[in-house]
Structure formats: C-alpha cells, structure tokens
C-alpha cells in the first residue's frame, strides 16, 4: 500500500527515502507487526530528518533512567495517542513538542511508515517521517522523562564501525548503533536501519560484534 507523500519541495537527498518509504511494507521493517484484532494501544513516533553541518541528521533523545518503560533508552520523540489527537501525525508532533520543545511549524510531514508493534509494552506504533526545514535549538523539557536530546548525523549511523548487534537478556539479538557511548538498540535501531536502507545511505558492514544489554 502506498501512503501519501507531501508535495513540498525537498532537498535532493530526501527524494529516494520519501518515495520508498511511502511504499514499504511493515514486514520489510520488522517481524513484529500488530496481531489481527489486537488491543494494543495506539502511539506514534517522529522520525525527524534535518540538515546540519555534517549533512542529513536525525533527532534522537535518551529517555530518563527512572522511567518505568524503556528507561535510559535512546528513542525517537513520541508516545501514546491521546483522545484529542486527530491522528498519528498529531500525536508525534505533540509529543515532540512536549518532550524536546519542537516547534511544529518548523516541520513538514513527508509520509508515514506502516504501523509496527512493540510487543513488550503492547503498543502499535506509527512512525511519522518528517523534514525539519527550519531547525532550532532543542532541549529536554522534563528531565523526569527525557535525559537529553541530540541530532545524530546519518553518516555516523551508516559508518560500518558503528554498526553492531545488541543481545537482550531474553536472548533476542537485533540491530544496534554504538557511537561514542550512545548505544541505540531495539525498536529505534530497527527503524533507523530501515531509514538508512530506503534512503540509500546504508553501507556494507559485517554483523560480528554483539553488545550485551543489562
């Protein structure tokens, strides 16, 4: 199924990602998809790509270590859909504003990825892909929820030296990125790996090193 793509003028590096993301299927991203008839809670995350001094980058944040779920884990801005949210896009933009002070007017939503599933917390998640056309300073609004926010260059994510795999205590092994002490794993790493592939940034790497998660 093809999802709508905005008709806004995008930088040249955006075009392959925008077109491929609009047509990608959930099973091409992960084997964790919402089960038929699932009562999983609706949520959304914002995959915000901007252009910094080192080329295209993505906005990530690290969740506070005291949270009940996903404590200390790097992630995209996002959260659970509230009754006042019109759709997944509204959820993603509202959460990003609340978590890192993102101005929704600085963002153009390009398309969405298929709805995915986080089985551990039973959330069905819609990733919202957006262009940060007017980037501005960001910060952790509530330290009780967000420890820090950072823009990560896509070239660092694509660097084979930073590609690893992470093994969860349950034994599950999935993709991960290890960059100067910032270890991105789980749902976020899987989606980022897909973004790199669809955008044409992925470089060959040898999936050898495994990082053990506590």
Automatic annotation (TrEMBL):
One of its GO terms (molecular function) is coenzyme A diphosphatase activity. Residues 38-177 form the Nudix hydrolase domain. InterPro entries: CoAse, NUDIX_hydrolase-like_dom_sf, NUDIX_hydrolase_dom. Keywords: Hydrolase, Magnesium, Manganese, Metal-binding. Its cofactor is Mg(2+); Mn(2+). PANTHER family: MITOCHONDRIAL COENZYME A DIPHOSPHATASE NUDT8 (PTHR12992:SF11), NUDIX HYDROLASE (PTHR12992). This is NUDIX domain-containing protein. It comes from Stackebrandtia albiflava.
């Amino acid at each position: 199924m093809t999802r709508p793509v905005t008709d806004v003028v995008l930088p040249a590096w955006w075009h392959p990602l925008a077109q491929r993301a609009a047509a990608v299927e959930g099973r091409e991203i992960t084997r964790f998809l919402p089960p038929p008839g699932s009562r999983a809670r609706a949520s959304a995350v914002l995959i915000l790509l901007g252009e910094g001094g080192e080329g295209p980058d993505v906005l990530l944040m690290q969740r506070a270590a005291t949270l009940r779920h996903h404590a200390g884990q790097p992630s995209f801005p996002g959260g659970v859909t509230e009754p006042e949210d019109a759709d997944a896009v509204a959820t993603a933009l509202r959460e990003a504003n609340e978590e890192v002070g993102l101005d929704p007017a600085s963002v153009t939503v390009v398309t969405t990825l298929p709805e995915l599933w986080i089985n551990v917390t039973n959330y069905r998640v819609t990733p919202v892909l957006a262009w940060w056309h007017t980037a501005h300073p960001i910060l952790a609004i509530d330290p009780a929820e967000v420890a820090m926010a950072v823009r990560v260059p896509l070239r660092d994510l694509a660097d084979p030296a930073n590609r690893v795999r992470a093994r969860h205590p349950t034994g599950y092994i999935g993709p991960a990125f290890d960059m100067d002490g910032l270890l991105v794993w789980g749902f976020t790493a899987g989606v980022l790996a897909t973004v790199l592939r669809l955008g044409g940034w992925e470089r060959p790497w040898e999936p050898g090193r495994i990082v053990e998660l506590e």
